[in-house]
Amino acid sequence: MTMLTPRTPTKLAPPGRSRRERRAAELQAHTRLVGERLAGISARSGVQVLQEVDASPAGLTHAEAALRLERHGANVVAHERAPRWYRQLAKAFRNPFIAVLVLLAAVMYWQDPADPGVVILSVMVGISGLLRFWQEFRSGRAADALKKLVSTTCAVQRRAGSGSAPTTFEVPMDQVVPGDVVKLAAGDLIPADLRLITAKDLNVGQAALSGESLPVAKADTRLQDLGRPDATDPVEADNLVLMGTSVTSGTATGVVVATGADTYFGSMAGSLVGERPQTNFDTGVRRVSFLLIRFMLVMVPVVFMINGFTKGDWDEAFLFGIAVAVGLTPEMLPMVVSANLARGAVAMSRHKVVVKRLNAIQNLGAMDVLCTDKTGTLTEDRIVLDRYLDVHGNEDTEVLEYGYLNSHFQTGLKNLMDQAVIDRVDEAEEVVVDARFSMVDEIPFDFARRRMSVVLGRNCVVGDFGRAEHIMITKGAVEEVLALCTHMRDRGERVELTEQLRWHVTRIAEDNNRQGLRVLAVATSTMDTPRETYAVADEDGLTLVGFLAFLDPPKADAARALTGLADKGIAVKVVTGDNELVAARVCADVGIDVGQVVLGSGTDDLDDAALRALAARTTVFAKVNPVQKARIVRALQADGHTVGFLGDGINDAAALRDADVGISVDTAVDIAKESADIILLEKDLTVLEQGVIQGRTTFGNTIKYIKMTASSNFGNVFSVLVASAFIPFQPMLAIMLLVQNLVYDISQLATPWDRMDEEYLRRPRNWDAKGIGRFVVTIGPVSSVFDISMFLIMWHVFGANSAAEQSLFQSGWFIEGLLSQTLIVHMIRTRKIPFIQSRASWPVMAMTVLAVLTGLWLPFSPLAPSLGFVALPASYFPWLIGVLLAYCTLTQLVKTWYIRRFNTWL
């Protein structure tokens, strides 16, 4: 059993948790009321239901339908719509650092409208916000393109007037109204909630609502049906069919009892619109942002006061304080985060993955628990014949042959299991079906008998005379077929079916049921007196041949993908609406350690603390409804886990929305795709593992930038504090500080294209504001040691110890500060020894070289006078090289100690 140890929460519980719980409770109550209403409709007769909805078996008139459409509205459910472009644009600029930069730019403009710093900050803000807006806008359009712009119709019976004969019309589903009489056939989508009036051999696929992979049989129904008073769950009522499901076989006619938001489907979909809950990424970014802003709010006033009191020029001190604020602000963070996420989205799009919400990429990297539905995600969502067994449970091709003859020769509509048998014979080359069989008669399937029989003619040779022999082949529910059997075929011999043998073969069938298989029995009988027609009474004295066992098979790549995720430190939990036997079988097949399966009903009476404990130790939840799925997700989040959810049905939509990252597939229902953050365009689950790696790379490069920039900026400001206290002039002009930050920050634009060490990608990564603060105050002052060393060198060696020589002092510190900041990129980007054990990507190398060359060139460039620089003597550079080498050595030593002490780096 997979056990989850509660992680020390490194994130705050998503705000509004109580509101989410209230919303979930409201959803549960509303869905329960809708369910009770539908259960009441199921309990009443068809005639009563028609009277209640003021309809007749002949259908509504066109005029009545028009009035009801106006009264009840279109038959559509609530769904989330992408915000207008201008709202998306405004949201792209909603970031605490952008707010700080805008405020600083406004103050600088107020001081001096011609200040170039205003333009610099404005460009930073504009590029960052526009980059995020364009990527999310483009991703949203790609996700919308997944919806097939096809008008889906259904067959509705309507009349021109009250006395007219009914006619069947194809009308768009959104124009179906209560009281409409809808005709259903194989392949039809159920357009609304219907009470069946008539039904014949009707099987309905309900996976989107219930998660049950196999089709559900509905009762053969007539208008005089008296109802099902024992039906409490509308999904399980055999005289109701619900919106969101589809007909797999059979025919039916039903009257619409609910449309749109009033349907069972709509009651669940209505909860999925509105503001989304805060995710791990949102919480982490907010905490880290305000940590860095607190640093700035403490340091800037201190620098301002020290400079004002020591230099006496408060205007200059104010400008210098603004420059320090800009220097402390990781102004490129929004841009780097956006570029990181955009690059991740582009990389994932190459694997046919649509990233609807950019933040989901980093959440995918931080994910340490993946909750997944079973049907359509772990399985292929189709029925296959898994086994053909004799009465002892051994594989026997004779059983397959008889099953094939029954499925092949029946004249009615073949259901999914009949087709699975036919497909299996096509695959099994060792099975040869005797072409001498010919169809004589059949006894069709009905839901009372739960079996069907075909009678075939087989030519036999007895001595020198040929005669036609009729053989009946019966296939159906085990208990129904077994009740008609008097003998069984045992190793080619026909033996009497004693009570002991009957118990034995029943146990064989039950053992396969317990393995999650749907089992049918196959029996035969040779007709004593061949004739042209046969009846149900002839289904007697049968000989049991064996069993056919069916399942929804797991996807070929599911086991490999889930193993890869487990290797990446992600615990996989299955949360499905299907039954526990089927869930356990599929999970075992894909390599999940099942342990004790917990039913959804077993979570209802648990408080939040008990559910957290249960969720931590449970791997498989079965028979789980949508509200229970979402509650399990929230319980795992409350334990400090970053939770992903993979699903494709309406029953998954609430959990997809509440998870830190919701993942769906392109064949999912629209509601599920709208609730998801990431959509897989191909059902290749290995994409998830690639997405996790991409997410961790994206997160790692973001953290890398934050730690590099925050620690070096903190070190610079700490150096400024020391210099301001003891040097009679400004250690660096405000414009120099802005230029230094601009050159450094531009060099960091290549960070999203850097590579991450393989060791970093092996486990989930999460935001840790406390760890970032500890890193900044530990590593930042290291650079101050060498800044102060350069102060002393400029003061004592080069005589820059007076106001007349301040430009030389400032130029010398500018170069050393910029080059040390640039070198720190390579020291911090890896826990290994830089350049030797780990090398940066070529874009990072190129940008850092460019930054170094720019820093060395500026004091000698034509721009030098306007920026306050002076040319440095050649003797300065050996001292510079020595300081930088010493700086790299000490940083590596401190890094080694830090990793040993805290067992972490990035």
Q: Tell me the Rg in angstroms.
A: 36 Å
Distance between the termini: 32 Å
Strand content: 15-25%
Helices and strands: which structural class? Answer: alpha/beta
Based on Cα principal axes, name the global outline. Answer: elongated
* Mean of all residue-level pLDDT scores: 80
Which percent bin holds the helix content? 40-55%
Keywords: ATP-binding, Cell inner membrane, Cell membrane, Magnesium, Membrane, Nucleotide-binding, Phosphoprotein, Translocase, Transmembrane, Transmembrane helix
Transmembrane segments: 92-110, 116-134, 288-306, 318-342, 772-798, 840-860, 866-890
InterPro entries: ATPase_P-typ_cation-transptr_C, ATPase_P-typ_cation-transptr_N, ATPase_P-typ_cyto_dom_N, ATPase_P-typ_P_site, ATPase_P-typ_TM_dom_sf, ATPase_P-typ_transduc_dom_A_sf, ATPase_P-type_domA, HAD-like_sf
Catalytic activity: Mg(2+)(out) + ATP + H2O = Mg(2+)(in) + ADP + phosphate + H(+); ATP + H2O = ADP + phosphate + H(+)
Task: Kindly describe this structure.
By secondary structure, the protein is α/β, with parallel strands linked by helices. Helix content is 48%, strand content 16%. It is built from 29 helices and 24 strands. The strands form three sheets. Strands 1, 2, 3, 4, 5, 6, 7 and 8 form an eight-stranded mixed beta sheet that branches. An eight-stranded mixed beta sheet has the order 9-24-23-22-10-19-21-20, with helices on both faces.
